[in-house]
Amino acid sequence: MRVLVSVDMEGTAGVVDRSDITPGTPGWERAREFMTDEASAAVRGVFAEGGGAEVTVCDSHAKGLNILPGRLDPRARLIRGTPRPLDMVAGVDRGFDALLLVGYHGRAGLTDAVLPHTLSGRTIDSVRINGMVLGEIGLSAAVARSYGAPTALVTGDDGAAEEAADVLPGVATVTVKRALGVRAADSVHPEVACSLIEDAVPKALASVDLTSQLAFPASIDLEVDLRMAEMMERILLIPGSERRGARTFGYPDIALPAAYGLVGLVADIAEIS
């Protein structure tokens, strides 16, 4: 079995504030260890049953320079750095059998979730695929599904677990903390989080079902609500884009993986506008 483990930071045990996730801060230095350890726990879970597994870990927070390579389980390959094709699920187009989403968080607009956002909290209010609102959980799962890789497990706070259950009915989840606000949580100890994740992975991989996964047609309609209207000026320079409101950008008849990349590009363009 070939498994891709996409690891974010906001849903990691113990992480609650922007100072925990901002590169260069003392909080981020600690959170890097927690994030790396949860990734390693997922890797151990994949290998728990033995056999010829192959695991790739994708560092999916910010610029992809968070996981400590020397601390990661040595059996895993590591994708890090940006920009890169398919962003948070980079490599999924190379024939993986399953996707694990570790340390994920709720989408933009949620109130009962820790540090909720969709790709860029400073620029994006909402992302819709064929009218369906999706956050990073749904977008990652949908892109992976388009390449034949079902999402077996989602870990993070209770807001992420609820979102996963909504867009991926029946998917296995691990809740490592419960939101008390967007910057407050009741969290298990990082070591406990790792044990929960390691124990959940084998069961999740054994029961995953591709047919129950979020699926879209080959050509979809993308719609993005930006946080500020002035961001539209740069976005509308993208060929094929169209204005659908003061803060709403649309792109019809686009393949899902391309739409996912376009949302990332929109976030980057808007941030420098």
**Main sheet attributes: strand count, strand direction, barrel closure:** 7 strands, mixed
Order of helices and strands: EHHEEEEEHEHEEHEHEEH
Count up the helices. Answer: 7
| Total count of strands | 12
Side-by-side strand order of the widest sheet:
3-2-1-4-7-8-9
The percent range for helix content is 25-40%
Q: Can you identify the CATH class of the domain at 2-111 and 136-212?
A: Alpha Beta
CATH superfamily of the domain at 2-111 and 136-212, by name, is: Dipeptide transport protein
Question: What are the segments in which pLDDT stays under 50 over at least 5 consecutive residues?
Answer: none
Gap from first CA to last CA: 43 Å
Mean pLDDT rating: 94
Radius of gyration, Cα only, in angstroms?
Answer: 17 Å
- How big a fraction of the residues is strand? 15-25%
Shape: globular
Class inferred from helices and paired strands: alpha/beta
CATH architecture group name of the domain at 2-111 and 136-212: 3-Layer(aba) Sandwich
CATH topology of the domain at 2-111 and 136-212, by name, is: Rossmann fold
